Write the structure tokens for this entry.
Amino acid sequence: MRHRGFTGRGFRCESPVASVQKVHRPARADLDGMDTSMKNARRPLTAVVVVGALAAAGVAATTPGAQASSRRNVPHSRPGWVARSHSLGKPAASKQTTLKVYLAPHGGLAALKDDVAAVSTPGNARYGKFLSASQYHATYDPTSAEVKAVKTYLKDQHVTTTGVAAHHAYLTVRGTNAHISKAFGVSLAKFQHQGQAVQANTDAVTLPGTIASSVLTVTGLDTTKTKIQHLSSTPAPPPAGFNNARPCSTFYGQVLATKQADYKTPLPKFNGKSLPYAVCGYTGPQLRAAYQGANPSGLDGSGVTVGILDAYASPTIAQDAQTYATNHGDGSYAKNQLTQVTPSAYTNQADCDPSGWFGEETLDVEAVHAMAPGSKVRYYAAASCYDDDFLNGLTKIVNQNKVQVVSNSWGEPDEGENGDALAAYQEVFMQASMQGISVLFSSGDNGDELANTAIKQTDSPASSPYVTAVGGTAAGIGSDGSMTFQTGWGTQKYSLSASGQAWTPVGYLYGAGGGTSSLFNQPSYQKGVVPSSQANGRAVPDVAMDADPTTGMLVGETQTFTDGVRYGEYRIGGTSLASPLFAGQTALMLQNSGGKSAGLLNPLLYKQLNKAAYVDDVSGPGPDAGNVRVDYSNGENASDGLLYSIRTFNQDSSLTVTKGWDNVTGVGSPNAGYINYKLK
């Protein structure tokens, strides 16, 4: 997975972090108006049958051969990348392969989808009537009889069940490639994929009709290890030391970039105009003033717990967060206000760059606290940056059921998502919805992804209809704390020429992710709001907050500088910033609602758009084409010189900002009206 191990010294699983201690991603099943069905864009399917809980509606189709044998396809079980890859032959038939067979919820997908729609849709008699974790499991866990039926079939096929997960979520099974191929109706081949020597199935999994409805998905046939990336646009990967160069502005537009840092050498104008220097980084008080206004009720998030999921755990987060809060007026952390839930061990540290994830955790924790300084923050650490560990982390969050909102600043392009894991993710998101947990995901940092992947696409899991995708803006906050403008985050870069007389275009740099998903149909809550041109899929994002690194947030973290290890502060951006900012805003809204939970926010966001008007339209280019940014060549100090560049606003690949909903900012950016909304 993208950000989108550490051995955990000084940590215990679920240890509270005292603030002064050292501790560390074609059947359309429109059920109750919420159409969230999966669509297979890569392979024609001849007949459609519902077979499992593909979190946004799974579809199963049978080929003529499968019909003859009464077998049914498991949806999205054939890796999409296989069709574009060259087989390197067949793997050894005698090789042992381990898989996970995920089981569908008891009662079937349709019933669970109906229930999610009911508890999530304002005006429904069941709106807001959420379940506890134990009630969810009592209702939807696969039964012992369903587990036995699948185990018996596999045993008859000489595939051994080696374990059954808690709540009968999945079976761990093992068998030879020959037996696996026969049991799941697939052919296996060897490939070189994502730099790895892997084996994968070249066709869809099929199962007998007698058990197909009990199986959600099968993972492990494709042995590609999917790495998750964090989505923060960091200037350098912490904890390697980084400082923002001067000059910079303490509020938007404070310092006009007419001269270089020596205040003698002039800077050229851009399109006939001098631009401001980028901000040094907004702080909590500035962000609260801009997004929350006067906040006459004094909302601070008290009584609400916000969850965060990233990989690994920073060994200095407690003191860093406390130092940052003290430095910038965000209020000290009370005892147990910041808690970390860590695994028994970390893995894949050589592959995953744990230090980069430390920076992600720092941003997420400090951004939530900046927006909602009274809320509790419960940080969950995945054991590595790989898909399975993030899925395990999400499962732990919903089963513990101790948070009301969870922010996720990680993901990957939809085409990179393993179809087998996709179904399992969706079921976890539906469980969260049933329990009243609002799941937020950063929408991505590569615009339409064309420059990054050669395919226009959205990012996953942000494209799931069961999560709220948070896009990005560039935000101007004035000297009085007011929001002077908001526009889309999308950046073209220009570097100062060698002569210092002109700005040389570099090209597209980054911007908020968005577009139309190829994985999911349009959910009913987007109908009538999202333009009809995008009615063929789930549109991303839903809302947006500040994400542009040029107008980003100042964060503080212990880093390794050339003169030693010490605390330092730097500006950061990305939709990794937007998601925790929105989580903080949502904590205030929940507090204002008497501590109620909201669950899936999207039906509320889209339903209220034209009524309560608590979401601002974000449009227009802003007062400037962009800002001038100055950076140290070595990242730390001016000894090796300075680099000057212009970072533009509102130029997000093919994505554009318009009045109302758009692919950069969704319905817009939540303002004071959002936090003052009361859940019914």
User: Anything to note?
Assistant: The two ends are 37 Å apart (CA to CA). The chain has two domains: 30-219, 284-675. Confidence is low (pLDDT under 50) at residues 4-68. DSSP finds 16 helices and 34 strands in the chain.
